[in-house]
Amino acid sequence: VQLVESGGGLVQTGESLRLSCAASGLNIGGYTMAWARQNPESELKWMSFIYPDNNTAYIDSVKGRFAVSRDNAKNSVYLQMNDLKPEDTAVYYCAARPYGPLIGGEGVPTADYWGQGTQVTVSS
To answer: Among residues 30, 41, 49, 83, which is most buried (max CB within 10 A)?
Structure first.
């Protein structure tokens, strides 16, 4: 199984980016997919889940700015990030089949599969 993120980069405050996560070796259609992020000042944290029925969940700090989506036919998940802020600067990871903790919960994010991460840098 391989998850490959793309779409990261350097942007200015208020701009947008769209991250992609392409899966191979796993049919994502029946599974929850997730995005997590980590910057040097904080621990790895879940940001967003998208469930097989397309329901979504987000941490409070990105609600209304970020949107997760999936295209099962392309075996891919996306994260549209709008109105980016310097505090969004982090390495963003795609994960498949997360099993803990819930978004906003305590503990180290765990999942069956992880991508290698893509850097997002937001300048002020």
So the answer is: 49
